[in-house]
User: Fold this.
Amino acid sequence: MLKLKRVAIDTYGANVAFISRTCTIYRPEEYQPFNKIKVIHNGQSLLSSLMVVDDQAIVADDELGLSEQAFARLGVAGGETAAIAPAEQPRSVDHIREKIHGHTLDAHQLEEIVADLAAHRLSEMEIAAFLVASAGFMTTDEMISLTKAMSKVGNQLSWRAPVVVDKHCIGGIPGNRTSMIVVPIVAAHGLPIPKSSSRAITSPAGTADTMEVLAKVDLSMHDMQRVVDECSGCLVWGGHVNLSPADDVMISVERPLSIDTREQMVASIMSKKMAAGSTHLLIDIPIGPSSKVKSHGDAMRLRKLFEYVGREVGLHVEVVTTDGSQPIGRGIGPVLEARDVMAVLEGAPEAPTDLREKSLQLAGALLENDPALKGGSGYARARELLENGEALKAMNRIIDAQGRKTEIPCTGELTFDVLAKAAGKVMAIDCFRINRLARFAGAPMDVGAGIDLFKKVGDVVEIGDPLYRIHACFESDFGFAKKFADEGDAYTIDGKV
Amino acid sequence: MLKLKRVAIDTYGANVAFISRTCTIYRPEEYQPFNKIKVIHNGQSLLSSLMVVDDQAIVADDELGLSEQAFARLGVAGGETAAIAPAEQPRSVDHIREKIHGHTLDAHQLEEIVADLAAHRLSEMEIAAFLVASAGFMTTDEMISLTKAMSKVGNQLSWRAPVVVDKHCIGGIPGNRTSMIVVPIVAAHGLPIPKSSSRAITSPAGTADTMEVLAKVDLSMHDMQRVVDECSGCLVWGGHVNLSPADDVMISVERPLSIDTREQMVASIMSKKMAAGSTHLLIDIPIGPSSKVKSHGDAMRLRKLFEYVGREVGLHVEVVTTDGSQPIGRGIGPVLEARDVMAVLEGAPEAPTDLREKSLQLAGALLENDPALKGGSGYARARELLENGEALKAMNRIIDAQGRKTEIPCTGELTFDVLAKAAGKVMAIDCFRINRLARFAGAPMDVGAGIDLFKKVGDVVEIGDPLYRIHACFESDFGFAKKFADEGDAYTIDGKV
Assistant:
């Protein structure tokens, strides 16, 4: 038996065990070729990859080192004894192999895969193998089974209300922070809307990043429940709520590989909403040339899929398509977006009308789910709650319940205005390029970094008119962003790029 | 810039960089979500994964730690300065994505993938994605391009001789050490046969493991060339020769996932033989119920594929099918197999006749490629060289040239005889189970561990007759092996298992 030791290395979620090359009890060269080993302590076992150490200061010959996450998962204090053994491959790897060889999987097999995903028992290569094989083909039965399995494997929220609503947007549109307006409107009406959101991974801001400018968002499931009980709604980060841990693991592999199939997207979204206890879900599909969904036909196919799965898993789904041809609002990046959101809620004259109007449409559609409301009056009710200040009050209640930030950070102090190179009408704005530019400027890491748009599609500009302002917090980012904008400003004016 | 430091952690081939969480120059949280970072030193760059360290003794705030392999690859002494940057994904990941989405790849795209594989620029998940997508479908054009690209990316051997032969066996049969008899026979005739072999990964011994009982096998390419120049043949481990580095990388992912398509196997074998400068290749396909190839039909399809690829890449391929229904020879495990091989070469009366006969058949087929030899006389010539002791002399020359082991290890001293539970004729021996049993006994790590078979298919036994002897070197392995044999002895006697 070896003595457990915490090795202060953060492996970003992966379990790593360390043993000395001259370990007196195990022969590391015998274990190293295995994909994984099993660390056995006190009846518990933890799958882990193995690294061999040639430095007694990191692990001595009678020690078994564990990376920070692995150590925490085992819940030990250090100094306890543990054994290691070559890990048998989890049984779900056999199912993954079947899938690779073209078989379809049944509900039980998918449950085993999802359970192993959620428990971090599969390696990155095994996860990639499952995702790529599933991207090759996935039957609707498989998709339904996968969705159900994913929704059951993590925490599950439940609410006393008969109608619990939620919304989700198929992303890609910069500045599209409607959730932060829709949630307070719906909550002001009294309909529960337990919204959890993601942080940005490849975009300049996720709803969680923008909300975090105003309030604490990394709430536990318990705190999320409390905030919704108090305020009818919340705007929290999904990361601590653990509603679909298998999805979180899959996303960590989907992103770098850009595997992005409709089936996996639908399973991912629906499983999270089911676990959150929603009964009525509104899906917003923006359509545009640089948006995720590029044509009306694609949007319709996706809608059918959402509706089909919704019917099978017992979740009422409504799908709306929206304009995804250009950014929504003006600000892109956490602080700038939070500014736009609050301007809409406060009814400020400078509030972006497109963000306001889209939010009202979505909130209206959600309010239609209230049986007490007369059919067709959802939009008018949403507008009433925004205009009479009830939505703003609801937002402030939510901010206070989650934990108000005492100080709002400033926008990045390094600024640069990108000027129109041609005169004429703005014909198009490339969302993809605007997102990358805001990333280069430092968003979302630097919350004050980003882009402030002055011109939108349809506006008429003269040569030299400012199109947008870049905000950055660090010289290096500022330089990158200016250079990137110089190579292409993302605007098409009068047909000329 | 950070100061480079060697962190004495062996990551089994992967590049890992370590920076302090409180690093003063970079913000590790900004880099950690990326799949890989780029370590830039002196115009060189190295792709690496990143771990964040909370222990100044491992890396200080102004240091950049590198795992042993990464440090060696960068070829530094420590203390030099280096920068890091988020790594752009290698361009070949785009090609892998295309493959995932069902496109076929052209020669140039496959060359880029192979180059990135060989240079360790792809992550395990990216490699898995490529392999799984390719397992879904692969055109013959893709397979030819892949084979050619793989053969060109590593070292390449060349020989002055017009005919250079080689053999390869599609594995799975315990004790099948024909190469160690075929090579000396062919070399004794004077035909060059530059044989490189693998070590066991999941089997109880590879040819390299068994040869290592007698001689040094981890030769450099330079030494391999010298041995073949001196002796006409060699029996070295392929690991240091680096003939198909992309293949080595792919295998590290194929094994744990058990991805084992015909196309990938053919590309793997052919690319190595092309790089070794062979002109004539003999492929041995054992057919049997617990062998890799289970039916004559499968063997024929595989033969066609080998022949087709051989024609396209300019390598003469001959395929023979052999009996794969039971182990070959008696010993299983490095020392026991080496004993059988030497017995055959020495013409000892106890030499296993099946191993001798199969080796003569294969050597004869290879000798037929010598234009100086009369057609059909290969077998007789092989037998002559074995019986007149020339083959044994050639083997001793090869052993001396590679570096003779001064001491032959003993067989494992812990022994246990497994006895027949029924009387009758041995109908079948389960190769798969025999392999696992020998592994449990400690082979190939403990070279003296393994199994010594006393009875083969067709032998008649009484209840209590010893079927085979288990040899182990350690009590724990011995216990595992006895228990495993107790659960099933792998013998079918008179129709009863």
Observations:
- Chain A touches chain B through 50 residues (CB under 8 Å).
